[in-house]
């Protein structure tokens, strides 16, 4: 099978294309969907056999729960129950958008979606294409990021095609993902709520609506993982990543130069446009949103160019950079 890549207008998707993708999903097949965070690998969330195909395609172990995507908050009672009032406050402020809420699940949600947990992760993505698709299919969509297990998440349709193109029916191409980093995952089944994964919605924005949230060990950067699916080595490129402190840029450029002299394919990734010159330097933006938008493309690019070692400048330590620091740390963890 080779996936058909179909271009769709991000703002006003062609209803005919949406109808065809919806029919594909209703047959139990897989479709790659655009979202504002990353591309997802979608199946009908209420069809356990279809969801099993997601795990098979990604080569992902079944102890990882998958996020359920809805088009409208009125669909929430189909998948979640006993929804607390703070969930409604968060939904009003952040949906559609990059925030996943972990809630008590409805029995209609198959075990394979939740990895047997009594909870379900739910979000409404900001993509008009994907919401139109969910409405037309008439079912919620289970969708993890559309990458092989432990590999870099896709922010373009081409990234999806490169890793999974022979394992799904259709890829809806609505252009590059705007946010570029996965949704924030927040567990609302406990008090205080717990941040399971930093992501596209900053913790401080969440706290401005519902007050303090607790950070899980995985979200704060320590082992072990508190929830299924928080695999330490995740988002990993084939290139070996080494993180370095900004002040050591000159030193690192020297080391890279010597390695290059020995025939190693090495790149230095930095935000300091004014301080680095010469070959083998990849500049990254110095604002959070722009950096997030460029992060996974940069990692995919390193792989595509067979870069063996990349020295990556540590992001700033402010909390706004939490999700980026988290993904870089995971990508550079060796096992
Ligand atoms: O931005 C995103 O969230 C993307 C797009 C496609 O929506 N999806 C995504 O899915 O990143 P995935 O499967 O790669 O990551 C889902 C993570 C799981 O690894 C797990 O940590 C957490 O969300 N999760 C999902 N359901 C959960 C649950 N019931 N309890 C605890 N954690 C859950
Ligand atoms: Mg993922």
What is the N-to-C order of secondary-structure elements (H for helix, E for strand)?
A: EHEEHEHEHEHEHEHEEEHEHEHEEHEH
Count of DSSP H/I helices: 12
Question: What is the averaged pLDDT score?
Answer: 93
User: How far is the N terminus from the C terminus?
Assistant: 32 Å
Low-confidence blocks of residues:
222-226
- Distinct small molecules bound, one entry per kind: threonylcarbamoyladenylate, magnesium ion
Which bin fits the share of residues in helices? 25-40%
Structural class: alpha/beta
* Form type: globular
Cα radius of gyration in angstroms = 20 Å
Largest sheet: 12 strands, mixed
What percent of residues are in strands? Answer: 15-25%
Number of strands: 16
Question: What report would you give on this structure?
Answer:
The protein is an alpha/beta fold. Helices cover 33% and strands 19% of the residues. It is built from twelve helices and 16 strands. The protein has helices at residues 15-26, 48-58, 76-79, 85-94, 111-114, 128-137, 157-164, 203-210, 217-220, 249-261, 288-304, 322-332, and strands at 4-7, 31-33, 40-44, 68-69, 80-81, 99-105, 119-123, 141-142, 170-173, 184-187, 194-197, 214-215, 240-244, 266-270, 281-283, 309-313. The strands form two sheets. Strands 1, 2, 3, 4, 5, 6, 7, 8, 9, 10, 11 and 12 form a twelve-stranded mixed β-sheet that branches. α1 (15-26) packs across α6 (128-137). It is globular and about 60 Å long. Residues 222-226 have low confidence and may be disordered. Magnesium ion binds next to loops.
